[in-house]
């Protein structure tokens, strides 16, 4: 898909596939098009080029397919004067199978008064309320755009616990777009990273981390060891150098005694791959 707003290109020839019953992390720096991608998939805006399909059907031409997708985020979905219970009832009418009992249960856990008016909620509680609705709709594909925006640490942890519990009881696809990578890296199974208006990485967390290596040692020995490998970052201290490598290490690559090999996490990988002007292989 391709999408521009005026002369500003946001997404260019983007292509991806979200598998059923899988938890994804949709990652990218501010303004790279993550929210735009979610808006396109959920039918809120239209692509300039390309199409979105679900089980082979174009979702913008099929109301039943659109009803299988639900997205929440920073965009305002409800009128400020509406009471939360009214929004819940409207959602239940639009989505048969909507779990109102679960809504009430979650509202109590997050200490939300369902008689409150939506417009009177703080940013954090608006986020929580929309997250609750997303966990309770009967849809198969749920997209969260910054689902912990404005939440304190306690409520963020509660949200993650409820998401995992909900997924265990009724598996479906969750796509979580967030900047707090360290908080979700143990929840997600697959990662999609957006940068430079396109998707630069789309794979399982297991496969990605298996290729994330930190190689450190003397400049000469460490430099020789990483020859031919994809280096995405480096750091220097005197005669010691550390290379962040994203590549497979073949069995024939001998590790010298003066060189040390370690791993690094998803957050560091993301920073290296998306750093402005960084050393990134675009192939």
């Amino acid at each position: 898909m391709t999408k521009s707003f005026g002369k500003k290109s946001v997404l260019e020839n983007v292509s991806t596939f979200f598998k059923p019953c899988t938890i994804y992390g949709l990652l990218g720096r501010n303004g790279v098009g993550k929210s735009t991608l979610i808006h396109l998939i959920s039918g809120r805006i239209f692509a300039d080029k390309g199409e979105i399909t679900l089980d082979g059907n174009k979702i913008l031409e099929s109301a039943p397919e659109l009803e299988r997708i639900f997205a929440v985020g920073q965009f305002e979905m409800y009128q400020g004067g509406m009471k939360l219970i009214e929004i819940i009832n409207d959602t239940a009418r639009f989505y048969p199978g909507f779990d109102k009992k679960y809504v009430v249960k979650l509202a109590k856990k997050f200490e939300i008064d369902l008689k409150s008016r939506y417009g009177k909620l703080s940013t954090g509680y608006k986020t929580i309320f929309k997250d609750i609705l997303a966990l309770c709709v009967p849809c198969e594909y749920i997209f969260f755009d910054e689902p912990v925006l404005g939440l304190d640490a306690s409520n963020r942890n509660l949200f993650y616990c409820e998401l995992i519990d909900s997924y265990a009881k009724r598996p479906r696809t969750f796509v979580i777009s967030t900047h707090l990578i360290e908080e979700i890296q143990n929840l997600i199974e697959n990662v999609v990273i957006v940068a430079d208006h396109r998707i630069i990485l789309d794979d399982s967390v297991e496969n990605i981390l298996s290729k994330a290596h930190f190689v450190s040692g003397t400049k000469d020995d460490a430099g020789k060891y990483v020859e031919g490998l994809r280096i995405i970052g480096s750091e220097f201290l005197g005669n010691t150098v550390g290379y962040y490598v994203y590549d497979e290490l073949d069995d024939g690559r001998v590790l010298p005694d003066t060189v040390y090999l370690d791993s690094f996490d998803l957050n560091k990988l993301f920073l290296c791959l998306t750093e402005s002007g960084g050393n990134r292989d675009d192939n």
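Confidence is low (pLDDT under 50) at residues 277-283. Residues 211-276 form one domain.
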